């Protein structure tokens, strides 16, 4: 017989302060499969304009070794998938709530996710306790099981032209889904693979600036 029980596990997140004193908006990042919070934080900080935000990078709870033997983390696998999603949502809600209670913030929240982390960002935007004013997705598709809602204020969805994991057909399908649902979104198709580059950062920075201006 199979038995399941919950046990405490240590989570980890990184913060990088804004360049100016006083209340700042919050930019929360979710890394890709096998990556670390440091890698996502570096990505967030490379986005033009992010220096005006408090950047928070959340590391997935499940430690793994990558094929190259480097330590990293994963948000989940197909095993106990629904349970892991529920646990991850509680974890992310706890981190964001803690950051909001301990830091000087304006109340604006934007979520950013790369690859597997993009799926987590999407789920948090739709099902989490916070209500983000923007969602940024890089190299990831929209989870098909989640119904869209008016909680999605504005979405930036991006794909590298040579990305073999997030194909052009899936990108086009996701744009069609957002369009049909009436959700404001900005698509970006940049020259590159399954990774951010300067072309992506420029588009992401423009989106972040627009979201910030609309939220004032």
How would you summarize the topology of this molecule?
Elements: E1 12-16, E2 24-30, H1 37-45, E3 54-59, E4 62-65, E5 71-74, H2 81-102, E6 105-114, H3 116-127, E7 134-138, E8 155-160, H4 168-181, E9 185-190, H5 198-214
Parallel strand pairs: 2-3, 2-6, 6-7, 7-8, 8-9
Antiparallel strand pairs: 1-3, 4-5
Report on the structure:
With 216 residues, the protein is of the alpha/beta class. It has a single domain (12-214), classed as Alpha/Beta hydrolase fold, catalytic domain (Rossmann fold, 3-Layer(aba) Sandwich), CATH 3.40.50. 34% of the residues lie in helices and 25% in strands. The chain contains five helices and nine strands; from the N terminus they run ββαβββαβαββαβα. The strands form two sheets. It has a seven-stranded mixed β-sheet, sandwiched between helices. The model has no long low-confidence stretch (mean pLDDT 93).
CATH superfamily: Alpha/Beta hydrolase fold, catalytic domain
Number of helices: 5
C-alpha Rg, in Å?
Answer: 17 Å
CATH architecture: 3-Layer(aba) Sandwich
Overview in brief:
By secondary structure, this protein is α/β, with parallel strands linked by helices. The protein is built from five helices and nine strands, in the order ββαβββαβαββαβα. A seven-stranded mixed β-sheet has the order 1-3-2-6-7-8-9, with helices on both faces. A two-stranded antiparallel ribbon has the order 4-5.
Please give a handful of descriptors for the protein shown.
216 residues, alpha/beta, Rossmann fold, 7-stranded mixed sheet, two-stranded antiparallel ribbon, 34% helix
